[in-house]
Amino acid sequence: MNLRRLLAILVHELRFTRRLVRYWLFVGLGGIAFGALFAYYAFLHGMFSRHSGSIAWLTPRYLIAAFGFWAVTMLTTGAVFLAFDVRARDTRSRIAEALDVRPFRNIELVFGRALAILVAALVPSAVIVLLTDGIGWFFGETLEPRSMLSLLLFALLPTLFVAIAATMLVTIVVRSRIVSAVVVLGGLVGSVVVLFRLPMPWGLWFDPTGYALATLPSDLAPVLATGFQLVQRAAVVLLGIGMLVLTAAVHPRRDGSRRPVAAGTGA
Length: 267
Hints:
By secondary structure, the protein is mainly α. It has one domain. The protein has twelve helices and no strands. The chain has helices at residues 3-18, 21-48, 53-56, 64-83, 88-92, 96-100, 106-138, 145-174, 177-197, 200-203, 227-250, 259-266. The protein is globular and about 65 Å long. It starts with a helix and ends with a helix.
């Protein structure tokens, strides 16, 4: 894999993604969901915490995993609808033939595009979290710092990555954008159902968002991530890498690489 070619593809894909209306639509919806839920919990805490210790626990400082889940869900859905254009866009723009003769490998093309969508989703997510924390600072309702990092690094990043990889793989195989989006989103919903159906020690392995793995934030004994959380999220990232390697192996573009070897590596 040539790093310079991969970065060139990443930069080009980022520029294209920023021009898409659906990209800004899902970023906006994710920001609204995060900000609205933060304001909701801040209101409950500010107005009613003096009446009950249970209500006092509803401070948004310690509930970022609860309302962050919905922002992660919204942004992951947006990433799916960005990634399902992996090949159809080239054909629709009539550049597929020109792209096929360029001197880069499928692995570079696939990883470059996937990482571009990942970066395009992560950067505004970090901005949204920091802006929310900054606004909350004026009202005395800031977020616990380690829980913010945990949300971005261990919940959002692996979830986005595996969703993007799965969408690209299914799109190349079935060659239908709508079908691939339905399959991937259905798979994510199904994994959440399995999470709640199985006994907790087994079900946690099927948590796609990291929501059930989140530790309770604390100012006295803050924890960024537990050992099990690191292992499970690393497994999710490895699953995404394998899917991208398989996507490169079954991609219709011919690049001269040994596809059976690539497919075996991805599997």
